[in-house]
């Protein structure tokens, strides 16, 4: 099992910046990718940024040039600049993990944190 705990959310003015943190614990050795998603009121959860193997990064079009995903040890960060009110949402940390069993059988799993609220005021 992998446990993910987000932190760093809060209230920020439009144009401001926030750094979110996601601390992973448990079977962290099995993690092969981590990502940040967000879900605004009345909307579907969407991918914001992903950090895969070999430090490969993927960003939503709206996040490119403003957001940066990074990792240090078992913690992944999301640096967000020039925030806009429409980006008010609960931000969730996600981890993809692979477990290896007898005969080299594998099982892919996804884990989610409980989320951290980011509110951008105008």
What does this structure look like?
The protein has 122 residues and is mainly β. It contains no helices and 11 strands. Strands 2, 4, 5, 6, 9, 10 and 11 form a 7-stranded mixed β-sheet that branches. A 4-stranded antiparallel β-sheet has the order 1-3-8-7, with no helix packed on it. It is elongated. It starts with a strand and ends with a strand.
Low-confidence stretches: none
What's the helix count? 0
Give the H and E element order. EEEEEEEEEEE
Could you tell me the mean pLDDT? 96
Strand content: over 45%
Major sheet details = 7 strands, mixed
The radius of gyration is 15 Å
Number of strands: 11
Mass-distribution shape: elongated
What's the topology here?
Blueprint: E1 2-7, E2 10-13, E3 18-26, E4 31-39, E5 46-51, E6 57-59, E7 67-72, E8 75-80, E9 89-100, E10 106-112, E11 116-121
Parallel strand pairs: 2-11
Antiparallel strand pairs: 1-3, 3-8, 4-5, 4-9, 5-6, 7-8, 9-10, 9-11
Task: Explain briefly what this protein structure is.
The protein contains no helices and 11 strands. It has 122 residues and is mainly beta.
Supply database-style keywords.
mainly beta, elongated, 122 residues, 0% helix
